[in-house]
């Protein structure tokens, strides 16, 4: 390895060049807002974001003071009752939502059920829900559940290739349900174009932003999206099982009902009326009592977004992912790793995936054993997430340096690395 600092335009592939890129990175100071374990290179923020500084203290304070001392009074005094809307309002700018159109609630999966049901009910005469075969399984499973719930009048249409989606939309399509950034290969849909195509066919669109929110700027209002859901524990760093969020365009508020008609979605829950009277606004998408401590953690985690320029975030994400591809293809060449993420930076989110026929799981296990944390998706995908607020170019360099050693010496090919754990 040479340690020559290069001052020409094309950055070199040595460590010094990575260090120089970090020195020039306007987002580098944000890393200090997180507690990242020493000796770990964390490339899995697309699965579980790291712990932002201040969150542990905020949660401890909520437990000790708001719960311990305030007790039931804290619903009012500490604003617990407002958390779903308050946290939603803080997520709104990250996804380009209008005011009062986002709430934090439940899980991504449960929120999908609510919004897909609502969308289907707005197109009662139509019978198709269009999705992608390669969509995240829970999304498609939920669509199947909605269809059963609606008396099996609908059909779930699986499209195999992204370029075939628009052609699958017709005058019998009620809903187009897509994930903006694909969980396996990181490919990114053109939200504006596909939303337009769905609307041209008279259908509504549900976007899953699990791998978009906090990874790149999303413009739900600008794209005229109808509904969206997203995840609190990936790029939003809200902690394991953090509340998810959902978005409903203002034009759809109050015009129909979502099926989980719990008391928190009532116009006035504390009137305790015998019949359900749906709130006319985004509040209708709440269901029951929110998990307050998890809401507090997510709320505190959102502090890291203060002052973040989303254009710079996207530029760094594209640079990190491009750099990773270049390093892996150079330093791990000839070892059977095949890039499945788009090479065009404008066509991908903030993750990079490779396949490896024999060793996918074992290579990830060996990397984790050496402190480089990515993850594996069956049957053969090695997935690496790049979180622009805390991943450095030097992290990427060191990760690939260790990966090259593991590949060159076939260190991954040991029985202990092949044995699958319950969570991959
Ligand atoms: C991570 C992810 C989910 C997760 O759903 P949960 O309800 O939190 O388990 C859903 N959809 C997509 C596309 C995801 O990437």
List the helices and strands and how they pair.
Elements: H1 15-23, E1 34-35, E2 41-42, E3 51-52, H2 55-70, H3 74-77, H4 83-95, E4 102-105, H5 108-121, E5 128-132, H6 137-149, E6 155-159, H7 165-168, E7 173-179, H8 191-200, E8 204-208, E9 227-230, E10 244-248, H9 292-301, H10 310-331, E11 338-339, E12 351-355, H11 360-369, E13 372-373, E14 375-377, E15 381-385, H12 393-408, H13 415-418
Parallel strand pairs: 2-13, 5-6, 5-7, 7-8, 8-9
Antiparallel strand pairs: 1-3, 4-10, 9-10, 11-12, 12-15, 14-15
Helix pairs in contact: 1-12, 2-9, 4-9, 5-6, 10-12
Bound molecules: pyridoxal-5'-phosphate.
Task: Spell out the key features of this protein.
424 residues, alpha/beta, Aspartate Aminotransferase, domain 1, Aspartate Aminotransferase, domain 2, 2 domains, seven-stranded mixed sheet, four-stranded antiparallel sheet, 14% strand, globular, disordered N terminus, binds pyridoxal-5'-phosphate
Q: Summarize this, please?
A:
By secondary structure, the protein is of the alpha/beta class.
């Amino acid at each position: 390895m040479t340690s020559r600092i290069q001052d020409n335009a094309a950055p070199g592939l040595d460590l010094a060049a990575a260090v120089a890129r970090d020195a020039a990175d306007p987002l580098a100071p944000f890393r200090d807002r997180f507690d990242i374990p020493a000796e770990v290179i964390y490339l899995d923020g697309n699965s579980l974001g790291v712990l932002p500084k201040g969150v542990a203290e905020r949660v401890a304070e909520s437990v000790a003071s708001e719960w311990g001392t305030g007790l039931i009074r804290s619903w009012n005094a500490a604003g617990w009752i407002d958390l779903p809307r308050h946290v939603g309002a803080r997520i709104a700018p990250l996804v380009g939502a209008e005011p009062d159109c986002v709430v934090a609630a439940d899980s991504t999966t449960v929120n999908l059920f609510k919004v897909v049901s609502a969308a289907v009910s707005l197109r009662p005469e139509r019978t198709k829900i269009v999705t992608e075969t390669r969509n995240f399984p829970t999304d498609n499973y939920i669509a199947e559940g909605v269809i059963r719930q609606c008396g099996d009048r609908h059909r779930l249409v699986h499209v195999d290739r992204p370029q075939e989606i628009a052609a699958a939309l017709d005058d019998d399509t009620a809903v187009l349900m897509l994930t903006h950034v694909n969980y396996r290969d990181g490919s990114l849909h053109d939200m504006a174009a596909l939303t337009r195509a769905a609307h041209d066919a008279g259908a509504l669109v549900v976007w899953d932003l699990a791998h978009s929110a906090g990874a790149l700027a999303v413009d739900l209002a600008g794209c005229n999206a109808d509904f969206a859901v997203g995840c609190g524990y990936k790029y939003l760093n809200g902690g394991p099982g953090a509340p998810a969020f959902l978005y409903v365009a203002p034009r759809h508020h109050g015009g129909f009902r979502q099926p989980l008609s719990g008391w928190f979605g009532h116009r006035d829950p504390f009137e305790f009326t015998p019949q359900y009277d749906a709130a006319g606004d985004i509040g209708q998408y709440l269901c029951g009592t929110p998990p307050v401590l998890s809401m507090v953690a997510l709320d505190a985690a959102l502090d890291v977004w203060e002052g973040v320029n989303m254009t710079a975030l996207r530029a760094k994400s594209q640079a990190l992912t491009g750099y990773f591809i270049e390093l892996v293809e150079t330093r791990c060449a000839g070892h059977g790793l095949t890039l499945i993420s788009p090479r065009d930076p404008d066509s991908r989110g903030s993750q990079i995936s490779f396949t490896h026929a024999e060793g996918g799981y074992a290579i990830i296990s060996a990397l984790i054993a050496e402190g480089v944390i990515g993850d594996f998706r069956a049957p053969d995908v090695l997935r690496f997430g790049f979180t622009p607020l805390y991943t450095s170019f030097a992290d990427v360099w060191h990760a690939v340096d260790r990966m090259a050693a593991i590949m060159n010496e076939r260190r991954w090919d040991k029985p202990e690395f092949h044995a699958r754990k319950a969570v991959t």
